[in-house]
Design goal:
single chain, about 450 residues, alpha+beta, 5-stranded mixed sheet, about 10% strand
Length: about 450
């Protein structure tokens, strides 16, 4: 904001403090936007790079566009070479950080020219206050961008050019404004600011418009990225459904075998009675033991009222028992077609798989898995609780499974609630049934 340092205090504030604060804001934003962790030496090295760049600019009397290119290149290569970011991601983050900072600096520069200096003499103190306000505005804007794009991991590499082009255009407009109208404040010999002219007002309007355009682009990009994420979740859900469909077909065959066994039970009693009448008690006992084993294998530990879900839970809970997990199942599915069979299988399959993974990773602990579901009025509530260890890292697929469960719950206008402690994990799922009648 001023070309020369008139005192040691000016040098300390404008060169040392201001450059360091702006450098720390830039690199912190870069780190959080790209999800790259920073160490203390990253901060110190970047601040040193900004100091060196400022000295070069002052000695060479670099123009504003040239200084912008140097600063942009410094941030880009720091992200690309030091933080190991992909070049496209490093470029868009650097352009976004510099654009926000320069647009806000232009806005406060224009306000300083129009408002402050009309009412008060143009002093270094006013310039310092303006610089502090710029840093506060930059910090607020950076936090707003990070909040809007928080958790957006799908968007970054594949669709980043959608964000790169408009943000680059805003940066170019900012450069043109400073080249056309200048970036210094004119004062007379007495230190009094000359009255603002039409260029000051035009610069202020253009800078404010550029700021709102920048965040309009970011907001549109946020909505677009949410759509991409939803599309990805739906694709994963469809893939999961295909897998469940094949599994259900196999389990349906087993269900038919069970029905056939029950249909032939009278024949088995006839054979057993024949052995007893013939006095062949040993053969009768052996035959009875075989029937008991077959009956145990075909029985369903959880009678839900849904044939597909009975078969699914029979297989999965059987595996859980073999791994030493204590299982308790009290699931009752509403009658009728209010909930699609595929949706039920997706929910219970993913939930039970995640619970079994959590239990199987525990060593020497009380492993348990509890399933319960019932309908109350228009609500169908599912609760799945399992033991867990806080020291165990979740398996790779557990996050995808939970996303699939959330997608099914949203289909039924419901919610998913998670409760967990060091030894317990509880998943509560709520479906609102009437809203789905006739729409599934």
């Amino acid at each position: 904001m001023i070309e020369l340092f008139s005192s040691r205090l000016d040098f300390i504030f404008f060169f040392c403090i201001l450059n360091a604060c702006l450098a720390l804001l830039e690199i912190s934003f870069f780190s959080r936007f790209t999800n790259r962790p920073l160490k203390w030496y990253h901060y110190s090295s970047y601040v040193f790079a900004i100091y060196s760049l400022a000295v070069i600019e002052m000695n060479l009397h670099a123009s504003f566009p040239m200084a912008t290119i140097w600063e942009l290149s410094t941030l880009f290569f720091f992200g690309y070479l030091v933080l190991k970011c992909p070049p496209t991601l490093s470029a868009i983050t650097a352009i976004l950080a510099i654009s926000i900072m320069q647009v806000l600096n232009g806005i406060f520069q224009s306000l300083l020219s129009i408002v402050f200096t009309i009412l008060l003499p143009y002093t270094v103190a006013i310039v310092m206050i303006s610089a502090l306000l710029v840093m506060v505005a930059v910090l607020f804007s950076y936090r707003l961008v990070l909040k809007w794009l928080d958790g957006r991991k799908v968007l970054m590499l594949r669709y980043v050019l959608i964000l790169l082009l408009p943000v680059l255009f805003v940066l170019l407009v900012t450069q043109y404004v400073f080249m056309a109208y200048g970036n210094t404040v004119e004062v007379n010999s007495a230190g009094v600011r000359l009255l603002p002219d039409i260029n000051d007002w035009a610069m202020l309007v253009i800078q404010i418009a550029a700021y709102f355009c920048l965040f309009a682009v970011l907001f549109a990009y946020k909505k677009l990225s949410e759509g991409f994420e939803l599309q990805m979740r739906n694709a994963l859900l469809e893939q999961q459904i295909h897998i469940q469909t094949d599994s259900i077909k196999e389990m349906q065959m087993r269900y038919k075998q069970t029905r056939a066994f029950r249909h032939d039970i009278n024949n088995h009693w006839t054979v057993l009675g024949g052995f007893l009448k013939a006095g062949e008690n040993q053969k009768a006992l052996e035959y009875l033991n075989k029937l008991t084993m077959i009956s145990d294998q075909l029985s369903f530990p959880c009678q839900t009222g849904n044939a597909m879900l009975d078969v699914l839970l029979t297989n999965k809970l059987g595996l859980a028992r073999q791994e030493g997990i204590k299982v308790d199942c009290t699931v009752k599915i509403p009658e009728g077609d209010s909930i699609d069979d595929m949706d039920l299988c997706v929910v219970f399959s993913n939930a039970v798989d995640n619970a079994m993974n959590a239990c199987s990773n525990m060593k020497g602990a009380n492993q348990y898995l509890t399933l319960s579901a019932l309908q109350k009025s228009d609500f169908f509530m599912i609760e799945i609780e399992n033991s867990r260890s806080d020291d165990i890292v979740p398996s790779k697929g557990s996050g995808i499974g939970l996303e699939n469960i959330k997608a099914v719950a949203e289909k039924y206008h419901g919610t998913v609630c998670i409760e967990k402690s060091q030894q317990m994990f509880r998943l509560n799922i709520l479906f609102i049934i009437p809203l789905q009648s006739g729409n599934i």
